[in-house]
Design a protein that fits this description.
CATH class of the largest domain: Mainly Alpha
Distance between the termini: 29 Å
Shape: elongated
CATH superfamily of the largest domain: Hypothetical protein af1432
Keywords: Hydrolase
CATH architecture of the largest domain: Orthogonal Bundle
Largest sheet: 2 strands, antiparallel
Number of strands: 2
Strand order of the largest sheet: 1-2
Order of helices and strands: EHHHHHHHHHHHEHHHHHHHHHH
Protein name: Putative metal-dependent phosphohydrolase
Number of domains: 2
Organism: Caldisalinibacter kiritimatiensis
Bound molecules: fe (ii) ion
GO molecular function: hydrolase activity
CATH topology of the largest domain: Hypothetical protein af1432
């Protein structure tokens, strides 16, 4: 294995992570991806410099990243119809971006993506005081919020154009609107937006193709997302961070190469990524879940894996993260994997997860002591569900 050499594209990773955010029940599926596509085309047609163009593209994928935490309970429509929530998600999003390996420009593009050209937006910036990327994302975002989910119905392009012509110089920058009118004239634009495999379309336009991330940057992104995942439910506000810590300790106990330890830690940060897709009413339901509700919960490691697998170079991390509810005897979920196809790395995360869950406080019970948790895990292990070797590793590190 090559040390420190990852081949992961920043845009592909941001695109996949945006899908986790946009797949929740009260969001618009692929909203951020389409916003990125539309914003890119408007900016490109305006002749914007390559570096700014790629920052607009990155910012588009995460422009609504601030709609997490407490805001997961509101629908995307509610947030955009309420000036206070609108401002909050801009602010929260920009705050999260400070922890990502992205520059100041991307931060500002997200912070000001709800400014209006006439100065009546959330921070009251006016005209060219609004960063150019924000002007464009604002327009692309508005388009997708209103038309993104009905593209396959009978949409009337002339009506859409008429709307933007009226809003030109009021809501939106005149130059951005003119560019968008040009873009809308191309048949390809509409064919692309309706194409069934939208990521393929994004791959063809991707600006700054050479921009790959290193292991340190990947860890930063994974850690920032672990905070979003944990904050989604008040029951689990430090869960992923805890799992990452124990995973790292066990991995070091087994003397893995530094790069593998880092990758395991990243998989641990992201193991519950799929929970972003599960409705909060189910995640936080007090009392016993019905069979149907539990089946929905069981989809979270599935989404973790399938979302991470969209990123080339992340396949192994996707497996380790997505297999955290599998058991050696085939009684886990969602793939019913067994002994034959589960690795020690899978088991490290699975055991770190269960240990962390047992020892953390929940609103309805106190966390168990180390000894009590270890005893439970040992009991499960003796029924042929976990590798004894990994249980021993856990015992050594705690
Ligand atoms: Fe927004
Ligand atoms: Fe948006
Ligand atoms: Fe889980």
């Amino acid at each position: 294995m090559l040390r420190d050499k990852l081949s992961i594209k920043l845009s592909e990773l941001l695109s996949a992570l945006s899908l986790a955010l946009d797949s929740a029940n009260n969001r618009i599926f692929q909203h951020s991806r389409r916003t990125a596509y539309v914003a890119f085309n408007i900016a490109k047609n305006m002749g914007i410099d390559e570096h700014i163009l790629s920052d607009i593209y990155y910012a588009s994928f995460i422009h609504d990243i601030g709609m997490t935490g407490e805001m997961t309970q509101y629908s995307i429509e509610d947030i955009h119809n309420d000036k206070k929530l609108k401002k909050e998600h801009c602010q929260a999003g920009a705050e999260i971006i400070k922890y990502l390996p992205l520059n100041e420009r991307v931060h500002d593009f997200v912070l000001y993506h709800h400014e209006e050209w006439n100065g009546k937006g959330v921070y009251g910036l006016k005209h060219d005081d609004i960063p150019i990327g924000s002007q464009i994302i604002h327009l692309a975002d508005y388009f997708d919020l209103n038309y993104g989910s009905i593209l396959n119905e009978d949409i009337n392009v002339n009506n859409i154009k008429r709307f933007f012509i009226i809003a030109k110089g009021e809501l939106f920058s005149p130059e951005a609107v003119d560019s968008f009118l040009d873009v809308m004239d191309k048949e390809k634009f509409w064919f692309d937006l309706k194409f069934y495999n939208f990521q393929q379309i994004l791959n063809t336009i991707e600006p700054n193709k050479q921009r790959e991330i290193n292991i340190g940057e990947l860890k930063k992104i994974a850690k920032a997302f672990s905070v979003l995942i944990d904050k989604k439910s008040k029951f689990t506000y430090t869960h992923s961070q805890g799992v990452a810590k124990i995973t790292k300790d066990i991995a070091e106990y087994f003397d893995y190469d530094k790069l593998v330890v880092d990758k395991l830690e990243i998989a641990a940060y992201l193991h519950d990524l799929g929970k972003l897709v599960v409705p909060n009413e189910i995640l936080e339901k007090p009392g016993k879940l019905s069979k149907e509700e539990f089946d929905i919960i069981k989809s979270h490691p599935y989404y973790t894996k399938i979302i991470l697998k969209q990123v080339k170079g992340l396949e192994i991390i996707a497996d380790w993260a997505g297999n955290h509810h599998e058991k050696l005897d085939g009684t886990g979920y969602p793939e019913k994997l067994t002994n034959n196809n589960l690795t020690r790395e899978d088991q490290i995360i699975a055991i770190a997860d269960i240990y962390q869950a047992l020892t953390e406080d929940r609103p309805y019970r106190k966390g168990l002591s180390k000894e009590e948790a270890l005893k439970i895990i040992q009991d499960i292990g003796s029924k042929n569900k976990f590798q004894q070797e990994v249980i021993n590793g856990l015992r050594e590190v705690i």
